[in-house]
Amino acid sequence: MTERDPAREFVRVREILRGAAVELPPVHGVAKMLAIFLRMENDSEVSRRGIEVRFLARESFYYFPELGPPAFQRLLARASICPQGQAVSFRLETADVDALMGHHGGGPRWVWIVPGDDVVFMWVREAKSAGPAPSEPSPLPEPPPSPRKRFAHLPQPLACPHCERAASVYRAAVDGWICCSPRCGRSFTPPQRVRRAAELRYDDGEVVREQTPRSKIYR
Ligand SMILES: [Zn+2]
Fold this sequence. Notes:
It is built from five helices and eleven strands, in the order H-H-E-E-E-H-E-H-E-E-E-E-E-E-H-E. By secondary structure, the protein is α+β, with helices and mostly antiparallel strands. The chain folds into two domains: about 5-20 and about 25-125, Beta-Lactamase (2-Layer Sandwich); about 150-200, no CATH class. It starts with 5 loop residues before the first helix and ends in a 17-residue tail after the last strand. The relative contact order is 0.12. The structure holds zinc ion (ZN).
């Protein structure tokens, strides 16, 4: 196996998008890479740093750079597109998406590819209506807000069993309490009498209301 070289793979992607017939070494995982590009809506960037895919507005994932060139080659061949360095957009039908991914589960997709000198953008969206891709993709959905952190407030300080620092506030997680000392951060199971005496509050100070008699939160 040759050494991983994101900059070389980026050059190959750009050549492919200019219409060059690039000879590529065989590589495993191209269908998986295409499934990542096509199964869910995403914004992708290919650059000298590698392949970055965002599925929600703020979450990025990185993939092996050598999968970029063969994935773009197969995608363009399947869409019967011979680009010459310009931005392209096209529609892939379900049969094309499934063939590229190597399994069922995709529906029709709109794809936009915008090649630049330093980065190639590719955006994939579900084709929500018949016809070609609109001029621009819709923005990706925002990720759901992360759950609020909960803290156990104690009437008497309790020594952390790990670092022995006495504290009257611990982070209350589902499976235990977490020491808030930046040098510790370890979790433990608090004694039951201490747990009962504790009051649970969110990080903004609001008291946690128990949803059920047996809350999942450890207290
Ligand atoms: Zn500690």
